[in-house]
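User: Structure please.
Assistant: Input sequence and predicted structure:
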Amino acid sequence: MIAVLLPAVASFNSPLCGHIFIVTKPRLSSKMETALRMQSMREAIVMSKNKHMTDHERLQIEYWLKEGMSIKGIARELGRSTSTVSREIRARSVPSDKSGYGRIPNRCIFRKGCVKCQLCEDKPDCTRQCRLCKLCNSVCADYEEEVCLLLYEPPYVCNGCIEERDCTLRKSYYIHKKAHEAYRELLVESRIGANITEDELIELDNLVSPLLRRGQSVHHIAANNPDEFNVSEKTIYRYVSGNLLTAKNIDMPRVCRIKPRKTKPVQHKVDSGCRIGRTYPEFLRFVDETDSAVVEMDSVIGRIGGKALLTLMFKSCDFMIALIRDRNTSQSVIDWFDWMYTELGDVSFKAMFPVLLGDNGSEFSNPKALEFDALGKRRTQLFYCDPNASFQKPNVELNHEFIRRILPKGSSFDHLVQEDVNLMMSHINSYSREKLNDKTPIDLFGFLYGHSVIENLGQCKIPANEIILKPSLLKNAVAARLAVTKELPIATLINVG
C-alpha cells in the first residue's frame, strides 16, 4: 500500500485538499513472481556470459562450499549457469593426502577385516597388526585403495563434508587461490608459442626462405604472394628470429642492423590435450599394474635451430640410443620411431619399448603417431612427466652428462651424421658402471635383447682401454670422414678444425 498526501495547491476550496488517500498496489500471482525472478536470473546470466570468473567469485565459491551450499545455489548467487560452476569446481579442485585427525592414513579397501602381521621384513619383533601402521599401504602386496564415491557426485570436493575430519581416504578440495593460479597459468599458456602446425610451417618455409635468401624483403614476398599467406608480415619476422624457418636474420641485412629486443624465443604451441590420460600419476599406476619396462625419452639440443639428438634410455640396463635429427620437430621423432619399428620388427620393438616416458617438449606432442603404426596397431604406450619435473626421469638426464663430455653444451651438431653418433654411443655404452656391478650397459642390453639388436642399431662394444669420452673422439672421426670425401690428408683437416 502507498500513502499519498495531496497538498494544498492553487484552489483552496478543493474538497481533496489536505486529505490522505491509501492506494493499494495490485499483488502479483505466485506464477508471475516466479517468471519475473527467472527473467532476472536470465538477464544476470546474459550479463556474465563470455566473462572470465574472477578471483573474488572463486573465493565466494570456496566459502559457500564450506557452508554446504549446493552448486545450483552457488550458481544462483553468482548469476552464472550451474554447468559453469560445476566445471570450475571439477577442473580446479586439487587432490590432497590429508588424513583424519589423529588417525592412521590407511586407505586399503580391506583394512577393516585385515589381520596381517609382520609385513615389514626389517621388523621381525613387531607384534601389532599391520593395518594399524602407517607403512601398511606401502609394503602390502594386496593393497587396493578405496576411493570415496562422494567425489563423483556434486559438489565433487570435500569442502563442507561432515565426515572430513574423521575420513582417511584421499581427498579433493577447491581452494580459490590455487584455482585462480591454475586459471592464470592456463591463460598464459594458451598465448605462448607459434600457433601453426608443422605441415603449415614447412609449407611456409618452402615459400619464404628461398626468396629471403635471394635478398627479397618479407613485405615484397607477401605483396606478390597474397594467396599463399595466412599470417602477417610481423609473424614472419618472429618465426625467422625464433629459428622456426630455414632463413635466418643474416639473410635480411636491415634486420641485422636493428638492436634485438630481449624476448623469449618463439616455440611451437604444444597441444595440452595430448597429455590427457598420459600424465605422470597415470604412468605410475600403469607401471604398477603391468610391471612393464620403462624407456625414458629426451632431447639434447646443439645450436638453436640446428640439429638435435633424440635420446632413449633403457632403465633396466642404462643402455642409451641417440638419434640425430635435422630439426627438433615432432615429425623427426616420428620418422625415427617408424624406422626402428621397421628395422627391429613388431615383436622386438614391443619388447624393447613397452612404455615411454618423455617430457612436455613440442617434439613429443603427437603421441598417437608414436603409439600406433601406419595400420593403427598399437606398438607402445607414451606418458609425460609433470611440467618442470625433469627429476621424474633421472636416468636419461644423468646419462646426458656423458654426451656433454664429448659434445659440450653450446656446441653445434650440424656437422654430425648418424655414424658419428653411433660411435659416440658405443664408447658411452661400453663404459663400466659401478651401480651395474662394474658391468657395461652394452653387455647387459645384449643379454636382455640380443646382440643382433645392437648391430641393427649401429653400435658395437669398445675395449675398455680404448674408450674416449672427450671431444677429440668425434673431432677425429669427422676429420677422417671429410678426408675420404675431399681426399685430403687427415692431419691437415684436424689442424684446420
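The chain is about 40% helix and 10% strand.
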